[in-house]
């Protein structure tokens, strides 16, 4: 990978020293100067294909109504700069992930349309202020749990891979969100099978303005999802609470046929999650989620890569306009050139996981893992994961909605949080009552 010398030096130094800790005062002082408030390089690249960050997109696109749909493309008038197919992919190979290259080789219909880069990432001022405080206060303890961080990116100047992955897990995506969505498994024959049709409540106590993360017992992300369909799953519900200390994570499922709520015994890692009808594992959600302690995390460095970005148009039309027989519809997915942090995961000795190796690509402006690849125990490239970042100037944020994976071995694929046919898409709401994310809420049907 053609990293700059400075990036390689930083990555090697971190790997050799096992550095775990806060940024120096000198490093932190660059936030808002040479670095964005989240720690990205503020300047553009040398050839001008990546512009300088100028504060992001904070003005809503024409036609947007608060609490409504987010399919207004702020750059609808732009045309692709170029398109990549299997025929010309070698020309761009150094800017493509292994998974993207595998998809181009596997499917003649797969294509990447590359548009001008827009650095739309933004966040509230308070989130920037908290990030600046975290820079010199946050540390990882010996269990790889962040301490001293709250309400912002915990490690804007990361020293190792675990810190970078915590930046992804705790990235800014709003405090309290209401959404309705569907999910589809696409068989190897190209047939879409709906696995989820649900309404969800999501909150991030980590970003609550009154500093109530501690009052929430360290739970940084809560979600409750209630299924209306498909018919076989109607009435089923799942509740999840992710904790900074993964040993305190908790998930519950309500089984409508039994009229009982049960605590899931192993709601982590490569266990299939009921939230997707078992199609994805818990730690495949949003490219990667959950606990870090099964892997050694290596911060490889920063690299210019082609990734999905500013993909509001992916929310337009019908579900099956986006969800094709072999992959997402290339006409509806915008790709751009951005700098990303590359993080590799290798299974620790004595641990077990169906995917012992992974590589993740974190957008420098948002810290979101936009793409990821996983290898199986035989060393075969198995799954390539993706998310589609969407501009949300009202939050403000640029954060993914739809996500999923392509299984390169079975030729199946999965799309989650498909909202094309829903009346609203990722709606910011006032804080939910604490009872919303209680075990009892599944029995009572509280929303």
TrEMBL record:
Keyword Signal: yes
Region forming the signal peptide: 1-22
Signal listed as a keyword: yes
Alphabetical list of InterPro entries matching this protein: DUF1329
Organism superkingdom: Bacteria
Keywords for the protein's UniProt record, in alphabetical order: Signal
CDD domains with a match to the protein in the record: LolA_like (cd16329)
Name recorded for this polypeptide: DUF1329 domain-containing protein
